[in-house]
Specification:
alpha/beta, six-stranded mixed β-sheet, globular
Length: 222
Amino acid sequence: MADQQNLIAALHAAQGALELIASPKRPDGTYNRDRASCEVLARDTLKLVSQLLYPEPAQELDMLAVVNASGKLTAYTDGSSRGNPGKSGWGVVILDGGEVKFAGGGYIGDNATNQVAELTAAIEGLSRVPEGIQVELVSDSQYTLKGLTEWRAGWERKGMRTASGEPVKNLELWKRLYALADKRKVTTRWVKGHNGDPMNERADQLANKAVDTRRELVLETV
């Protein structure tokens, strides 16, 4: 009886935490809680639920990242910017052996470029892949993929400047993406956008759903 009551309480706490993550902005542009705090709260409460359901051994229910990945992962990422710059969001679908392990998106802001949206999507995708894991990053953004492969060495030789000597745009996002990629075994693949690839289309839909709802995190049933 006590375990059942604890389980019900934990489920209510988990629901409340996830609702905080998904809650829209206030009229003044602020949130009830910052995203990091909400994610920590959601993880803690979902972990408690899993421990109550599966005490030996504990099986953590993690809806925010892919854990215990086996083999090679594939991360489909896509960004949406309406207006370029304009309202923007990111979408990510992660597969493990062909099985979807994560599908979600998030709102970036009211005045971000398409490049920012695509880079943010790639960052969100790789951040949900465990370190040391082999992952194929699939995107319809040649800007993102070439920045990870063809352009990086030249930029770094020039102190993160382009061939014309101009500072690389979106530098902080590139630094974050490089740091994530360096801790994972990343390969890349370009797909043509809006051309029928089901996972690319799903990532695009998630990015647009995030823009429509203006939610920092939109989780989709996998």
